[in-house]
UniProtKB/TrEMBL annotation:
Name of this protein: PorT family protein
Organism: Flavobacterium azooxidireducens
UniProt xrefs under InterPro entries: Beta-barrel_OMP_2, OMP/PagP_B-barrel
Signal peptide range: 1-18
Domain of life: Bacteria
Length: 233
C-alpha cells in the first residue's frame, strides 16, 4: 500500500513538478481552460480505504471490538455536467478491505477472533458541488448514496461461527459525503479526495444457534469507513 501510494506521488511529481509553480504561483499559466465545459467526461481512480463496523448491542455486555486495516481501491469515473458548478458522478470500483473482530467471553483466542475479509464491488451515485475555479485549482464537496456487492459475504454458507465462518449480507447500502480538489495540470486533471461512507442497513447474518456467543448480543452491525482516492481525468 505504501509502495503504491509513493509510486503515485512520484509519478505526479516527475511529470508535473515544473507545472506546480505555475499552478500556485501569482500569475499561473491556465491549463485545460475548457475542460469543465464538456458535457460528459471519464476518468479512473486509485486509492486506499479504512473500513470499520458500527456495532449496536442489544443487551448490556462487554463490547465487541472492531479493528480496521488499510485496504486498496481501484475504479472508473463517469462525470455528467448538470450545471457549471454541479456534476453527477458514477464511480464503480473494486474495494478490498479487512476488519478484525474480537468477541468477549472467550478463553480461546482462536474462537474470540474473526478476520472479516471483504471484497466489494461498489456503485456510488454522487453529486459534486464545485466552487469557482481559481487559477488551476477548484475545491469541491460531494455526497450521495451507494450500494455494494460483497463478494466475500459467505451469505449462502450453511456453516456459521461455530465452524469459523463469519457471514454478512451480500448487498449493503450507504450514504457518502466528502471533499476534494481539482488540480489542472498541462495534460490531465488530478483530483485527490477524502470521503466518508456510512452503512444504512444491518449487515450481520446471525448464527444458526439463537444463543450464539458471537451474534446473539448484536442488535445491528453496519459498515462505516473512509476512502482516500486519487482520480485522473
Amino acid at each position: 500500500m505504501r509502495t503504491v501510494f509513493l509510486a503515485i506521488i512520484s509519478l505526479i511529481s516527475i511529470q508535473s513538478n515544473a507545472q506546480f509553480s505555475g499552478i500556485f504561483g501569482k500569475d499561473p499559466i491556465i491549463h485545460l481552460e475548457n475542460f469543465d465545459e464538456q458535457r460528459v467526461h471519464w476518468g479512473y481512480f486509485l486509492g486506499f480505504n479504512s473500513y470499520d463496523f458500527k456495532i449496536d448491542q442489544n443487551r448490556v455486555t462487554e463490547e465487541i471490538l472492531s479493528e480496521s486495516t488499510t485496504g486498496f481501491n481501484v475504479g472508473l469515473v463517469g462525470d455528467l455536467r448538470l450545471h457549471k458548478n454541479i456534476n453527477l458522478r458514477f464511480e464503480p470500483g473494486l474495494y478490498y478491505t479487512q476488519r478484525n473482530l474480537t468477541f468477549p467471553n472467550f478463553e480461546n483466542q482462536f474462537d474470540a477472533m474473526r478476520e472479516v475479509k471483504s471484497t466489494y464491488i461498489h456503485f456510488p451515485l454522487l453529486l459534486k458541488f464545485s466552487s469557482q475555479r481559481v487559477g488551476n485549482v477548484r475545491p469541491y464537496l460531494l455526497g450521495g448514496v451507494s450500494t455494494a456487492l460483497n463478494l466475500s459475504s459467505n451469505a449462502k454458507a450453511q456453516d456459521d461461527n461455530s465452524n469459523n465462518r463469519f457471514r454478512m449480507t451480500q448487498w449493503s447500502n450507504f450514504y457518502e459525503v466528502g471533499f476534494g480538489i481539482d488540480i489542472y495540470l498541462e495534460y490531465f486533471k488530478f483530483s485527490p479526495s477524502i470521503r466518508g461512507v456510512f452503512g444504512l442497513n444491518d449487515e450481520l447474518i446471525r448464527d444458526n444457534d439463537p444463543n450464539s456467543p458471537w451474534t446473539s448480543s448484536v442488535g445491528s452491525m453496519s459498515t462505516r469507513g473512509f476512502f482516500v482516492n486519487f482520480t485522473f481525468h
